[in-house]
Amino acid sequence: MKVSKFGGSSLASAHQVSKVCEIIAADPERRLVVVSAPGKRDKEDIKVTDLLIEMAQARLSKKNGAEELSQIVDRYGEIAKGHDVPVSSVNAIAEDLRNRLTADTHNEDLYLETIKAAGEDNCAKLIVDVLRARGIEAHYVSPKEAGMTLSHEPGNAQVLKKSYERLRLLRDRPGVTIFPGFFGYSDSGSVVTFPRGGSDITGAILARAVNAEVYENFTDVDSVFAANPTIIDHPVPIRELTFREMRELSYAGFSVFHDEALEPVFHAEIPVNILNTNNPKAPGTQIVTTRELESDRPVVGIAAIDEICSIYVSKYLMNREIGFGRQLLEILENEAISFEHAPSGIDNMSIILRESSFSHDVETRVTQRIRKELNIDDVSVERGLALVMIVGEGMNHSVGIAARACAAFAHAGVNIEMINQGSSEVSMMFGVKAEDMQATVQSLYREFFE
Ligand code: ASP
Fold first, then answer.
1. Which structural domains are found in the chain, ordered by start?
2. Closest by alpha carbon to 224, among 274, 262, 270, 183?
3. CA 180 – CA 168 distance, rounded (Å)
4. For a pocket test of ligand 1, which of 46, 76, 182 has the largest count of ligand atoms closer than 8 A to its C-beta?
5. Residue 407 to residue 412: CA distance in whole angstroms
6. Atom of ligand 1 at shortest distance to CA of 197?
7. Is the C-beta atom of 36 inside 6 A of ligand 1?
């Protein structure tokens, strides 16, 4: 059996929902379907999940949220109107939303979680009605009843291992099961959501639970591309890549697929197929455990992220001091900051962080502590950096990749601030000034793809 997940843009309008129904009907193996909440119909539009958050915030700031509520009901109403769905379906959605909106707000986290989850929950119910109107046997299943048990981390939940056994029973359900993505329940019975974009995670968990033959992830692009299309004009499509390659690329900004979603399918070795709802015949991109390497294409993709900063610490004879690295990282741990990389030299160490986790206040505290507790020679912080990564399993077997990459930097006239090959052997990472990011990606693309 296949697990098929449809993202928000695939469910944004009545027309898009028709395409989804056709895709489901076209293959009897598509028996477990995960849906997002309706997304944007066009660039200026707003996602239902964002509307729901606005609605919750309105109520929490002592407004009634009625305007947002009616906007959301209209979104579902518009989808229903394009299909032969009874009016009662939309009335039930309106009532469900009203109940959530007027619920107790004592625990704000819990309140917000319940409202956020309404997007996918009601979407799943509506899709069931649309499929039934087309004569397809479809059933809604609630994540609670199915056993999707998550850690109690609102907005950042993780699946608990014990969920898998119960979720496995979804295999035996008749017809097509429609499962709402993005949320589950904690042990205490409260709604908890995954991070934003988390319906991808739901799909991956289900694919693993039922041991699916493939996890199909329907989105709105024909494939994953070798570089960001806003930086490179018509980049080459990637037909196949490994889990490790996809992990590295999504880490550095490839947003087609939620990076946390790979974990469950990676361990179960279930292939993922990224497909386009608007062009389902296109082969898409397959993510697999191993692939045949092309000797003329050692790099599969180039990714880049900005808003990066680094803390540079130097101390003469640092290499002789036992526990220096631990003490330095402990200061960050105390501030609850996760770091990205820590390249080091004999007498210096840099900690690479995302700027979003390192405000100026935190910077002052952290640098003061480093100075005071570690007795260092120098500490400085550099902001406005970017990380550019070239990724490919084939790099490990090819000679001269670093030389080619460095030549590309030289052609672009860009200074490399940092190089980190790490131990993964699947990627090579370069730190550059953020203003050089685009030129770097273009030059690397020319070197490895043209
Ligand atoms: N609807 C949620 C969001 O917008 C989850 C998802 O679409 O995957 O983040």
1. 2-288 (3.40.1160.10), 301-449 (3.30.2130.10)
2. 274
3. 16
4. 182
5. 9
6. 8
7. yes
User: What tens digit of pLDDT does each residue of 207-247 get?
Assistant: 999 999 999 999 999 999 999 999 999 999 999 999 999 98
Distance between CA atoms of residues 30 and 16, nearest Å = 18
Q: Is the CB of 301 under 6 A from ligand 1?
A: no
* Complete edge-to-edge strand list for the sheet that includes strand 138-140: 138-140, 176-180, 30-35, 2-6, 214-219, 272-276, 285-288, 240-242
Token pair recorded at residue 158: 């993780």
Greatest CA span in the chain, whole angstroms? 76
pLDDT in tens, 322-377: 999 999 999 999 999 999 889 888 999 999 999 999 999 999 999 999 999 999 99
The gap from C-alpha 277 to its chain's centroid, in whole angstroms, comes to 19
Integer distance in angstroms from the first to the last C-alpha of the chain? 39
DSSP calls for 4-22: EEE-GGGGSSHHHHHHHHH
Best residue for ligand 1 mutational test, from 6, 45, 199 (most atoms within 8 Å of Cβ): 199
> For the whole model, what pTM was predicted?
0.89
Cα 249 from chain centroid? 11
